[in-house]
Write a structure and sequence with these properties.
single chain; 226 residues; alpha/beta; Rossmann fold; SIR2/SIRT2 'Small Domain'; 2 domains; six-stranded parallel sheet; three-stranded antiparallel sheet; 11 strands; 32% helix; globular; zinc; metal-binding; acyltransferase; transferase
Length: 226
């Protein structure tokens, strides 16, 4: 069986990582949009880098939970394409062999000039040079508001070929990910949602299992692999 799984912030929340947007939508009295756009980086790169240094440290301190580990087990038994909206590396540290990060990754830096990518240091500076082209055009390898998510051709292909599409811990508010269930369903996939509450695009799913990811994901994986 070919399975495509999309994970969102809900799967990492139980590892202690807050969802991207704080409850008041602010970080150090700045709107999240003001530290997560190309315009924000051009206006105040130091502020933006400090925000991502903080997020990088939080992700490094977090540990994979039972839901991350269950998906790693699933990959050993089925043809699994694992796509995540998350920028942490908890799936990898749980043992998943390959993870498609559609919104980038906190542990990578990239060059805005030549596109080269490399492991990000714990602290990034405005004066950091690209190791490939030597230009001072380093930025976090993160998809900001207004930018195109990464690996979309590969993701659309996996959705089209899937027998089963599963969304875990996603809000259903952010496109293009919010359209994945509809696309997979049009191509014949069974669509399942695992979430604390029904998502905004709940109508696109054939069925859902509600509850915390650390319970629902292991139970679901066990039902598939025995």
């Amino acid at each position: 069986m070919r399975i495509t799984v999309l994970t969102g912030a809900g799967i990492s929340a139980e590892s202690g990582l807050a969802t991207f947007r704080a409850s008041d939508g602010l970080w150090e009295q700045h709107r999240i949009e003001d530290v997560a756009t190309p315009e924000a980086f051009a206006r105040d790169p130091g502020l933006v880098l400090r925000f991502y240094d903080m997020r990088r440290a939080a992700a490094a301190a977090a540990q994979p939970n039972a839901a991350h580990k269950a998906l790693a087990r699933l990959a050993a038994h089925h043809d699994l394409t694992l796509v995540t909206q998350n920028v942490d590396d908890l799936h990898e540290r749980a043992g998943s062999p390959r993870v498609i990060h559609m919104h980038g990754a906190l542990n990578r830096a990239c060059c805005a000039a030549c596109g080269h990518r490399w492991p990000a240091p714990a602290t990034m500076a405005v004066t950091d040079f690209c190791p490939a082209c030597s230009r001072p055009t380093t930025r976090p390898d993160i998809v900001w508001f207004g930018e195109i998510p990464q690996h979309m051709e590969e993701i659309w292909a996996a959705l089209q070929d899937a027998d089963l599409f599963v969304a875990i811990g996603t809000s259903g508010n952010v496109y293009p990910a919010a359209g994945f269930a509809q696309h997979a369903g049009r191509n014949g996939a069974d669509c399942l949602e695992l979430n604390m509450d029904a998502s905004s695009n709940a109508r696109d799913f054939d069925r859902r299992i509600l509850g915390p990811a650390t319970r629902t994901v292991p139970d679901w994986v066990d039902s598939l692999i025995g």
